[in-house]
Amino acid sequence: MTLSRRLLGTLLVVLGIGFAVLAVGQQYCVRRWVEANVQDNAERVHRIVLAMRQLYHRQFIDSGLPVDEGTLGFLPAHAMQRIGRDLESRETTGLSVRNVAVVAGEGFDQADDVEMAAIEHFRAHPQAQSRFVAFAGVDGQRYYLHARPIRADQGCRECSGAANVRLTAAGPERDDVVGHRTGDLQGILSIRVPATPLEAQAQARLLWLLGAALAALALLGIGTAWAVDRQVIRPLRRLEEHIQVVAGGNLSQRITGLKGEFGRVGDACNRMAENLSCELARREESDRRFRTIFEQSAFGIAIVAIDGRWLRINQRLGEMLGYGETELLSRSLQEDTHAEDVAADRDQMQRMLDREVDSASIEKRYLRKGGAILWATTTMALVRQENGEPAYFIAAVEDISRRKEAELARQESDTARDAAVEALRAGQRLAVDEQRQVRRATLSLLEEATAARIASEEAAAALRQSEERFRALVEQSIAGIYIRQDDRLRYVNPGFAAIFGYESAADLIDRVAAHELVSPEDRTAVRESIGRCLEGESSSMSYTCRGVRRDGQLIEIEVHARRFDYLGKPAVIGLVLDITARKLAEQELRRRNDELERFNRATVGRELDMVGLKKRINELSRELGREPPYPLAFLQPTVDSDPSPGG
Known about the structure:
Among the domains are: 30-202, no CATH class; 297-399, Beta-Lactamase (2-Layer Sandwich), CATH 3.30.450.20; 474-578, PAS domain (Beta-Lactamase), CATH 3.30.450.20. 51% of the residues lie in helices and 18% in strands. The chain is built from 14 helices and 15 strands. The protein has helices at 3-63, 76-90, 113-124, 154-159, 195-247, 260-296, 315-321, 325-329, 342-353, 401-429, 435-467, 494-499, 523-534, 580-623; strands at residues 96-101, 109-110, 131-136, 142-151, 185-194, 300-304, 310-313, 359-367, 373-384, 390-399, 480-485, 488-492, 540-548, 554-566, 569-578. A five-stranded mixed beta sheet has the order 2-1-5-4-3, with helices on both faces. A five-stranded antiparallel beta sheet has the order 7-6-10-9-8, sandwiched between helices. It has a five-stranded antiparallel beta sheet with strand order 12-11-15-14-13, sandwiched between helices. α1 runs antiparallel to α5.
């Protein structure tokens, strides 16, 4: 049911209830009005009758006539009796006026039951001035009785001197007229009015009033319905239509032309639509940035379900594992993880589900398509719903296979170096007859150490390239991720801001020119490298330079970037690593390698000098005809080739 129909039904119900109340109260109003009218008219009749009684009585007193059968009609009670009969003969409505007492006589009629009840009432209440009651007559019709007491007054005492006149009082009967006291109840003046004609008259009048009220209510209802339709229903319909349009996705629609409360509601709806439009624009921009970073990142990025299923992956992750997108989405993280690393992976995920940590990073082995092992650093973060329930994981996967190879090469180099040192020390303890083999072994080990050092340097270069990549996904990465366009930073992550000493990414985005973050000595080279990339000479670029932090401190940074289109214009997306600590470590490594090389050269040179000195001493001993003190036969190809003393 529509709102207009509900309002119309409510209005009709209210009108019906009002009409029913008027109809129910009609009878009560009729009787109250009739009773009030009868009492008012009866009071008037009483005043008229009493006035005529006093007039007759005064005329009789002033005339000086004796009280006898001829003048009896001028006495007050008789006068009132005659006046009442005259009124009855002239009245056509059924009204009757009687002078009644307990016992009829001397101007009083015999009281009936209703009038006797009135007499008893005045006896019980001497101060009462009137009595009004409704009763049913012997004919079955309703009547109203209005009675006033008739009490003895001074005029009665003036007329009571005639001995041949007998008066009957309504109080204690006395035949002695002189014994009446002023105020004694002699009878009542009874006025009877039939109720039916008056009630019919009042009923007709009230019916007319009820009809007029009903017509007024009908007009009021019609006016109210029109006003409600114009002032409420129509504005509500416009609001409903606008809300339906907004719900359909058209946030440009605006409500106009409404007034009052509906105008304020319409303004609120317009503001709500504007806020929704702005929020949707912000979300679209955020989604566009996320998709750009997700698809263009040099890392493998994935959205993982709580049970480990791949929900969404980027192209880079598929290339790393050797699967197509559709093929990989049918698998799970556990299936593509080495069996020995599944438990550790599951433990990290459970810690995030238990709210022990917000994110976790682990180095583990993946199984590529075909069974090959891929070493990678996986950084995962748990995303929760608004109610706090886990929704999914976001994972960033970095290929560290080359770094692992470099670490292995470094371990082999360290092992070879330790073996060389140990061999040199052992060679010093060996007998002189093994000196040649020691020298050859030492030279061989030096060659291996040199080769190992070269391999170590190459591994270090590979390690630097590996460390340039992200270590966490976008906002959680410790590496700096940025989008540069027209020398402006269109986007940076918190890691980028932290590297350059800024509190938040908002302090950099569209506020700081990109070249200001590069030291003046390196700006020209960096600008040329970016220009070649944007002009298409190369799709990606890598370089190291010195960066300028917010406090002016210079740091060593390594940048890897590639060209892509952002919002229809060429831009550069890349990552920045702070390699200041690594530079210091490389310097320390070179210093130690130099020390080792100097040590090796000093050790081998010392041994060779000792051998030469011993040979010279042996030669001098032979020249002097003595036995050579140092056996150096191990230096000759054969024992027989060693010259004899006589030879």
